[in-house]
Amino acid sequence: MLGRGGRWLQRAGGAAPAPHGAQLSFDGAVLRLKSGWELARGLLVLRLCGLPGLVRRAPTLLSVSRRLLGHRLWGSLLRASFYGQFVAGQTPPEVGVTVQRLRALGLRPLLAVPIEEDVGQDKEGEGWYEGNRGAVLGCVGLSAQGGSQPMMQLKVTALMSARLCRTVSLRLGEPGGLSEFSMDRVMAVMGGEEANFSSLSPAENRHLQASLLRLDGVTQRAVEAGVRVLVDAEYTYVNPALTLVTLALMGRWNRAQPWVWNTYQCYLQDCLVRLGADAALAERRGFCFGVKLVRGAYLEQERRLARERGYPDPLHPTWEATNHSYQHCLDLLLELVARDGQQCQLIVASHNETSVSHAIRRMEELGIAKDGGAVCFGQLLGQAGYAIYKSIPYGAVEDVLPYLVRRAQENQSVLQGIRKERDLLRRELWRRLLRRP
Ligand SMILES: Cc1cc2nc3c(=O)[nH]c(=O)nc-3n(C[C@H](O)[C@H](O)[C@H](O)COP(=O)(O)OP(=O)(O)OC[C@H]3O[C@@H](n4cnc5c(N)ncnc54)[C@H](O)[C@@H]3O)c2cc1C
């Protein structure tokens, strides 16, 4: 892959992992803004998220409790617990308060409407997706008020059905799929041409056309408002379609600077190969490449699906292997950024101290300015003059339920970050109880 990767990429390939270096202060200063109740709730919720039986049954427990308690009481209980822990609020004023609290700490908001659809949950007609388009445009508006170099997260499956994403992903893997669903054809539909893909039904073509226009329209508004759009990665059975539409958006909008970014999940065995291929494509086609680098949030579900359907597990077998993958991808990207920080930009979206320290060390070695805008960090507790974004999802309880369940499930596999967060919460509670400065 790297061999195919063009001039720009070849020079970046083969970077040896550097030793772990400079330490960031993960001091939990952000917790000083939380009330005693919020700290205690944080500890309780993280504890509950650590109970595998409870987390496994979370979707059933949520629907049964909604039936037993009634919608209002159920909503209030969730708002006081899991929702309150993981979500910024429901209305723009509530979100505004959270944004102000973060900015007071020098953190930047990374707003997200965590509406996502899984295959089998398809909503009827275009209405649901059009409604989501309104919510995403609201997110663009709120993000634009978020200080310098605003960013937001976007879930493609909020604007295009997961079922169609899976169908397109399947077609991409079939002979002729790559030429039928080429980036150019997708860009042409985004630009107003009629969708006419022979392997899709007329209804699928209509939905694809409406979805691509929605995605393009949202991106156009974001560019006009000066907001960078970070497209989330989701399940492996929809990701090829997500990457296709994201690269098409990049091809249309990332001419002068990276407004649209793609997410790469390092727990996937083919992550480095795909990252390299897409970086090479960006270079060949002359568009800027923005990357959100994550480990990956769907570990349990991906493994279960592979087991149930009898295909090889697409994930690295261990956390250590995922860590290696993360570091290799990071090294590749930092070299690309060092070469041209306008052409390639990166958000290190991880709570992992080793990864963050490694990124900082390599930035120093490669001469990448920490406040130059080309590299930033996602969801850190500490800060040291770097651009740090805090992911803050918001929305109504019902809309963010799948997100809440996934956060609970994800917390089972988030080893270092959760332990650290629990320690920091405990330490902050003790500091207050003992009235220490
Ligand atoms: C700003 C931001 C945006 C994000 N956007 C996305 C997104 O678009 N898509 C997405 O999927 N995730 C996203 N995530 C979540 C991310 O993928 C991780 O789940 C989360 O950040 C925990 O990883 P870590 O590096 O912070 O922590 P760590 O605790 O160092 O790592 C935990 C992660 O390691 C991996 N892991 C753990 N155990 C194993 C194992 N046995 N074998 C293999 N791998 C293992 C899993 O990916 C797990 O989540 C985002 C995170 C942030 C901070």
Topology:
Layout: H1 6-10, H2 36-49, H3 52-56, H4 58-69, H5 71-80, H6 82-86, H7 92-104, E1 108-112, H8 127-144, E2 151-154, H9 162-172, H10 177-180, H11 183-190, H12 202-225, E3 228-231, H13 239-253, E4 260-265, H14 271-285, E5 289-294, H15 299-309, H16 319-339, E6 344-349, H17 353-366, E7 375-378, E8 388-393, H18 397-413, H19 415-433
Parallel strand pairs: 1-2, 1-8, 2-3, 3-4, 4-5, 5-6, 6-7, 7-8
The site of flavin-adenine dinucleotide (FAD) has 31 residues, from strand 4, strand 5, helix 16, helix 18 and helix 19.
- Based on secondary structure, the structural category is alpha/beta
How confident is the prediction overall: mean pLDDT?
A: 85
How far apart lie the N and C ends? 54 Å
Identify the bound ligands. flavin-adenine dinucleotide
Query: What sequence of helices (H) and strands (E) makes up the elements?
Result: HHHHHHHEHEHHHHEHEHEHHEHEEHH
Strand content of the residues, in percent? 5-15%
Write up this protein:
The structure is a single chain. The chain has 437 residues and is α/β, with parallel strands linked by helices. The chain contains 19 helices and eight strands. The chain has helices spanning 6-10, 36-49, 52-56, 58-69, 71-80, 82-86, 92-104, 127-144, 162-172, 177-180, 183-190, 202-225, 239-253, 271-285, 299-309, 319-339, 353-366, 397-413, 415-433; strands spanning 108-112, 151-154, 228-231, 260-265, 289-294, 344-349, 375-378, 388-393. The protein has an eight-stranded parallel β-barrel, surrounded by seven helices. Helix 17 (353-366) links the parallel strand 6 (344-349) and strand 7 (375-378). Helix 4 (58-69) packs across helix 5 (71-80) and helix 14 (271-285) runs parallel beside helix 16 (319-339). Residues 1-25 and 380-384 have low confidence and may be disordered. The site of flavin-adenine dinucleotide (FAD) has 31 residues, from strand 4, strand 5, helix 16, helix 18 and helix 19. Flavin-adenine dinucleotide binds next to strand 4, strand 5, helix 16, helix 18 and helix 19.
